[in-house]
Amino acid sequence: MNCLGIDIGGTKVAMRATGEGPRTHDTAFRWPQPGGPAQDLDALAKGVEAVRDHWKEPIEAVGIAVPATLDSSGRVVTWPGRQGWTGLDLRRELHGLFPGALVRWADDGDLAALAEAHEAGCENLVYAGVGTGVGGGIVLDGRLCPGTARGSCEVGHMVVDPNGPLCDCGRRGCVQASVSGPATLRRAAALRGGPVDFAELREALERRLTWAVTAVDESCAGLATALTSLSEVIHPEQVVVGGGFAAGLPGFVEEVARRTEALARPGRPAVPVRRATLGGLSSLRGAVLLAQGAA
Known about the structure:
InterPro entries: ATPase_NBD, ROK. By secondary structure, the chain is α/β, with parallel strands linked by helices. Helix content is 39%, strand content 21%.
């Protein structure tokens, strides 16, 4: 079966076509700036047409990783990265691009989890991606949980501190309000007493400066707490931590693993925590798996 996986991101779109054999075709493009729904959809249509020019066989199934929140009808409820998409009937637009093909979509964090589980040969896995926000997904018995028909697994919106910092969603104490890249940088700036960008945080962390270590350790502790709570409910075999922010900071994943181990209780050993294997390709690989029917 000829399939197309599409990973829709905040700044770019990546696509991979696959067939019965090992041959694949990868391509990507950046969203137009400043952009808007009409310009974005035009760019997406041109990107799809470029794939068709190269991949002559008809595309039979499409899987799409989306960062936006969609309602049950496929309409965009919210997407902070491209706010103009709010209210867009994405289901209609996607089916219009691929008439006659099976079109499925899912949250990018869910599909990253699916891809990491498939890569590891692990049927029960939790994935957390730490970047601009905190995304994630759960795979149980080899399938996405709760499943594409019931919505996405919002690890980043687990409430871990009802009196914690305000989240973009309007609640207090969500995981991403204290663990995400921007949240960590804000904490680092407060501790340092001045602005901090990612490069400065990384360099200070390598030098083990107190303000940097404290800021990152608090994020690692918050993520370990959330992952431990989640593990008590679903009992995964592995926990995988990815995302650009986590991947870019030396020792971040290892500190999450150490703090998760410290939270183990008698009779319930901590679940192994490891670094993501696929990096920035996880959601795209998951989108291909979705097209192939693996979810």
